[in-house]
Each structure stands twice: as C-alpha cells, then as structure tokens.
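Researcher: For the record, we're logging two predictions in this thread. I'll number them. Prediction 1 follows.
Model: Prediction 1, sequence and structure:
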Amino acid sequence: MAQGEKIIGIDLGTTNSVVAVMEGSEPKVIPNPEGNRLTPSVVAFTDNADTIVGEPARRQAVTNPTRTVYSVKRFIGRRHNEVEGEEKMVPYGVTGAAGEYVKIKVGDKEHTPQEISAKVLRKLKESAESYLGHKVNKAVITVPAYFNDSQRQATKDAGQIAGLEVARIINEPTAAALAYGLDKKKDEKIVVFDLGGGTFDVSVLEVADSGDDDSSSRVFQVVSTSGDTHLGGDDFDEALIHHVADKFKAESGVDLRSDPMALQRLQEACEKAKKELSTLPQTDINLPFITMDSAGQPKHLTMSISRSTFEELIDDLVQRCKKPLMQALQDAGMQPSDIDEIVLVGGSTRVPKVRAVVKEVFGKEPHQGVNPDEVVAVGAAIQGAVLAGDRTDVLLLDVTPLTLGIETEGGVLTPLVERNTTVPVEKKNVFSTAADGQSAVTVRVFQGERKMANANRLLGEFNLEGIPPAPRGTPQIEVKFDIDQNGILSVSAKELGTGKEASVTINEAAGLDESEIEQMRKDAEANADEDRRQFELAEARNKANNMTYQLEKLMKDNDEKLTDDDKAPLEQAIEKVKKAAEGDDTAAIKQATDELEAASQAFTKVLYEKGGSETAGAEGGAAAAGSAAAADADGADDDAIDAEFEVKD
C-alpha cells in the first residue's frame, strides 16, 4: 500500500450511506458533493438512460418512480422467493424466478442489486477522493450482523464493481461499538441496538484492555449477536402509508397504492411525518392534487397524524425488537442488569417508542453520546486505520451470526460452526457413507438454526467422487469449514484414505462470477465521466424548468395587469431557456438560465410599478421567484419533490 494511502470506512445503508476516514487519531465523516454527510442510497435512471445517484436521485423520485431504485439493500444477495413482501412496497420492478437471485428491472434492462449498490459506493469513493486529494482503492464496508453468507458476498461484489478492494466486511453493531468504546478507559459490557431503514441487529460486546502496560490494545469482543433482516424504519413508513391510504380510500374511493407516482409522494410524506413525530406530538400530511376521482376531479390529501396514533400503528413492529434482544442476552449468558451501556444506532432509534422499549428492557436510558446516523461509518474508518497499520491499539473479535453445517442422513443439519463463534475460525469433522459401496458423496452446506437441513438456507453444494467401494460407515471423510474475517465461508471435503479432495467457496450467492464482476467494474469506471456529465446536464435542466415554471405562473397570476409589451422580454427569455433545455449543451442551458434571471429582474420592476402580486412586491420580486426555483433545483429546499414543479408536503 502506498505511503499515506487511506482505507476508508463505508456504512452502506438501506436508506442512507456514509463514508468516513481516520485523520490522525480522529475520525472524519466526509461530506458528499451536495455538502451533506448522509448520502441517500438512491439510484435513478432517466428516460435517456442517464444515471443519477444520491440526493439528486431522491429529489426526482416522485416524477420518475418506476425508474428510481431505493432500499435495494433489502434485496442484495437474496432469492426472489425471499422478498415477496418487500417487492410489493417498491414502485420499481423486482424480477427473478423463485429460486433465483433478485434483479431490479428498470425499463427493458435488468440490474443486479450489487450493480445498484456499486453506484452508491462509487459516489462515496469519489467523495473521499475529492476530500483526501488522492485515489482511494480500499474500503472497510459494514453489513448488518445478521446478514447471511450470500448477502455478505454480494456486498463484497458491489465494492469490487465500484472499483474498491474490500479490505474487510464487518458487522454494523461491531463498528458502532468501535466508535463508542475507542477512547473509553474502563472495562464494559455493552449492547449495540441497531435499527436502521431495513434491518435490525443487536450485539452484546465486552470491551476491555488487553493488559496494563502502555502497549496494550483495546479489545472489542463480540459475545453474541441476533437480529431481524426484515425489520426497520421502512416498515414503520409502510405502516403509516397503509393507514393514510386506507383512510383516504374510505373517504374518496381511490386507492393511492395503485398509482406509482401517488404512492411515491405518499411514501415521502409519511417518512417525513415519521421524523417529525419523533419531536412533535402531532404533524400534518398535505398532498395537493394527489390523484383524480372517477369523474376526473382533482383530489387533495390532508390528514393530521398524532404521535399516539403512529405509536399504535408501529407497536407490533417495535415489540418485535424484544425477541432478538433477549436472544442475544441469553446467548451471552447475561441479564439486562449486567449491561453497562446501551448504544443506539440507526435513524429509526430516534423514534420515542423505540427508546421507550429499550428503557423498559434495561431499566435505564440508552447512551446519548453518539450520532446514530454516522457512528457505523466512523467505526468502519477506525477498522480501516487498523488494517492500514495506522492504529495498533485496537483488536476486534467478531462472531458468525448463524449456525453453519451440512446435511447428513435423514435430512438433518449437522452443525460444524455454531452461531456466535468468534471469526476467523476453522472447524473440522469426520463423516462417512450412508450406503454400501458408495463411491461419491454430495456435501450440501446450510446456514440457519433449524434442525432439519432443508428448513435452513442452502448456501452451496459440491460432490466428492472417487471414494473406494466399502461397507457403509467405513470411509473416513473429513469436512472442513473455514470462515475468514469477512464472515465468508469456504468448505472442503477430503477422503482420508486416498487423499481425494473437493472444495467450494460460498461465493455463488451474488449470482455473479469473477468475470461478470470485473466487467461491471470496468463498465462503472468507463461510464463514470459520462455519468457525471449527464448528472450536470440533468441538474441544469431541473434548474431551468423550475425557473420557467415559477415565472410563467407569476405572469399568469398577474395577467390582467400586464400588457403584451410588459411580458414580451420575459417570454422571449423563457422560450430561449426551454429551447436550450431540450438540447444536451449544459453550458448553453446555464447561459440561458442566467439571462432569464436578468430578465426577471426587469420584469420585477414593471410588475411592482403596476401594483402586481404580493410576490412582486416582496423584496426581489419575480427574481426572487426565479431564485427560489434555482435554489430548489440546487437542493436548498428539501421539501421540494419534483424538479419541474414544486409541491410542498
């Protein structure tokens, strides 16, 4: 590794992603080009096949719902039959046969979740490179502790496609514990309660010094972990969406869930309401012109939501957190009273009902000293510094979240690696044949806690052939499981008499071989400049369209007071902007937009002199309207949900 080269830490989240790096002894969360520390995990494809990532993609989702992909973390490394519930709540296409890995369909093209995630990772990589002033080649990427082998491998593949060597995959709660406990001086037992947008994890850790001398390391040992990969803030949003949609349907006869654009607007409004109810006792959802009734009349949605109503809607979901929490404590051999601190991670832990349940279980308030949105990325950056050799005072001991084993006679799962085993680890066991004269065996590898193999997740299988014929039970077949520090499994089987051997690395999970990953990585690199150019063009068009809309509306509202001569200069400038926006010349669009801003200044003066609208009378007048549109296109107005017209939620 080159002198001074950094290994960045990335929290690849369901809703938002964060990148951080260690600068000396201090972690630094790196802002994106929009100036924000959180990057929405959203990727959009325009009708022109352009790609937009992050906040700009989120902003245009309402008018482009079927081509805007979000919450893809719920689909990564999973087969289609495993996501039947999740796919119904997204407006984009989710395809694949029951036993096949999920693909995302946008238009007539299919993308793997790894490709979508790679676009988010590439944006984070570029943000880090811009901040550091040099290329970034390596990253530590976090995953939910309860991610299975398939999901871990798929996440690693996403990193490779983005042009990153994934130095380590670590569990999100473990990363959070690193960030929390790095500078603590006392020995502690802590629980990390991680409720994000799409997943819930809980881990029990012991944090201690390895010795009394100055060279001792701070040891972070994961004792147990548990979780639910189908529980998160998205589910809170969904509960509220159904509540609002059901009430609206009862009142108007229209089901908003059948209209992708209306559903996208409702989803954004409910997410916003959820956040507001974390600090307010009540909030309002206002969505004008949300749909039309059977007579073609526009319908508006206006509804008040109280915190108590919201808490009733999510109560079952919040209560589901208790079972994994108590399971993790039981596996660790601890009681709630044994825990010194509870560290909350993930934006969903801001919901008061969630904090109340944590307090109910432990009898005390959770720790408030970390930013739940950033702490995981900070911990990943710390681990990156350890791997880069910049920190030698940290030792991380993580565990495998689920039992791993093989199918044996009768369809039974015989475990080789029990859940909560510290990794990396190697385990061996000797098996034999089930029939006389058997010359081959099939080794089927499963992950899960069920007694019968087929009730668990099949990770892979392979054949060991060439076994000398012998009575059943005679051949000695050694099966070895090897789990690396990323939690990724390799399995081998060896017939001890002949030395015949076969093996498999469980990396088929992503449905991608190395050549496909390499091709996707090359495609991403080859298209990076073009993607950036198309992004700048889209932003310029958005700004132009917003400004023309605002100014045309201003002219229409004051039409009776204006002559054709009054309007002509502004109309000409507007037409020039519209014509420029139809083309692909970003500079021309920007120049036309600047000229329109100047024309709006002159129009302001005319309108003010004629006693026009209140907008014109305000300081800045029509120019203020144009500037507001420009600011909206630049992301200054987070409530704006369309690049072409502004509808306030």
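Researcher: Logged. Prediction 2.
Model: Prediction 2, sequence and structure:
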Amino acid sequence: MFTQAPSKFREIIEAKKVMENEANAIKKCAEKIDENFPKALDILAESDGKVIVTGIGKSGHLAKKVAATLCSTGTASAFMHPTEAIHGDLGIHQEGDPVIYLSNSGTTPELVFLEPVFKSRQAKIVGILGNIKSPLAEKVDCVLNSSVSLEADPLGIVPTASFMVSSALCDALASSLMKRKKFTENDYARTHPGGQLGRNLILKVKDVMHVKKHIACLKLGDKMRKVVSEMTKFPLGAACVIESDKLIGIVTEGDLRRALNESCDLDSTKVEDIMTSNPQKVFPSITLGEALHIMETGKSPISILPVLDPDNSDLLGLLRLHDIFSES
C-alpha cells in the first residue's frame, strides 16, 4: 500500500526540483545565445560613459545587482528606477550612455515610455527580455532572449526561473566585458579595497608589519630566561635572533613551548639551542598576498615571517598571519 513520504523528505525533494528547474532554464538559455550577444557587448564596451541598468519590480531588484556587478568589474554603471527617471532621475543618464532594459514581459509601460527619451539622447538599448515578440523587443537595439517555459515555483507564476536566467545572462555580459577590457585581479582589488582580496593585492608588508623596536630581539648566547622575558614583553608569537642587525634565526612560541615541556634549564639553555636558523623571510615591498603565499606553500605552513631590508638584509620587523587578515 502506498504511503505518503514524510513531510521533511517531500520538502527536500521539492527544494531540489526547484533548483533543478532553474538550472535547466539557465542551460536552455545558454543554448539560445546567438550573434546578438557580441552585438550587446559592442554596445556596452564601446561607450566612454556609464551603463544605465533599469527595470521595475523584481527586474528592478535585479537591475540594482547588475549595476553593482558591472561597477565592480570595470564597467561604470548605475541603476535608474524607471518611474523616478521620468521625474528627474533621468539626469543620471548622460548623452550616449548605453542602457540595459530588464523586463520579463517585454511590455513594461515605464520602459516603453522611456525608449524614445533614451533614443533622443543618442543611447543604444540592450533588452534582456522574456518575450522576444513584444513591444520592447521591437524598439530596442539588441535583444537577449531570457524567456523560460515555466517558472520554478509551485504555481508557475513567481519570477524564479526567469529571474535566475536574466541574472545569469547579465553575469555572462559582465564576465565577457571583463575579458574585453582585460580586467585583472589588480583592477578588481582597486574596486574592492575593503575586501580581503583587495587588501592582499593592494597593501604591502611594510603597511602592516611590526617594526623592529616593537618586536622581541635576542642575540646569540642569550639564555632561556631572557627569551621568555622578551617574548612576554613583546607578545607577537616570535623573537628574532640577530647579530649586527642581521637575522641569524627565529624562536617561535612553538619552539618555546617544546623547550619548556622538555624541562630545559632557564639559566643554561641558550637561544641558539632552540631557534630555527636561516628562517623564511620576506621584503617590505611585496604584497600581503605574496607573503601569504610564502606562508602557505613552504615545507610546512608558517604563521610569522621576519621582514628584511632588501638592500642590506638588516632586520626591519615581523609579519604575522594575523596581520594579513586583521582590519586594523
């Protein structure tokens, strides 16, 4: 006898079905991409101005995201609300700025109304439309087909699959524009200075390192008691062993713990007995990303690096893994 599956299992199945339907809709959209796609890229890439992205309702929410994606990937862009545009916000648009229309129906009255206005300002319009036989499809300069056969929600009417398809098309445009403009990681970092990627690519070791006067420095022959004292005074996780300002070795907290666990004599054990000679080091001019790579790709991961002067190899300071990821 057939018994209904427990609710939690049914909901899991339904959730997977929604995602599969959306994924299939994107796949079908990819199969429909034609020569209009590079034409759209021409319109967007050849302008010296910014790209205006507009839509209303759910398409409006997507338009905001698209404008943000374009801005962060090398294409100046701004969202314009269609209703506000006809009451003053049209000033955002400068003559010749290309426009992206987002409309599932292809009949959005506000966008239809604005079409001749944009054209009078020498703007070319790319329409990402769910209906390629619609008033907007006939008026815009280039149509990208975002139509879906069915939405992914239980009623088949909520903008779900259509939203994801339009979003994917816009991501494809943004990605292709990045390639056309030869947009690099360094370019991306300049638009994301507050993110970790931007931090790793923009900031140098010298910007965040602890300078020599603020780190524990020892000399050959110093006893364990002084090692403990100096590392307590400057609690950065390591002490540098130097001679005439040149780095001889490094003692980490791990080295110190191992020595203490082995019951070393504080007054007879010398720093050279526990230090690591010729440790990995960095120069102040390299990026945090490069320093992080050095930390992660050695024989074993390390979390602290001495910083040396590239001209004379004098010790300048210390860089910790924590300093790379700290926002302070």
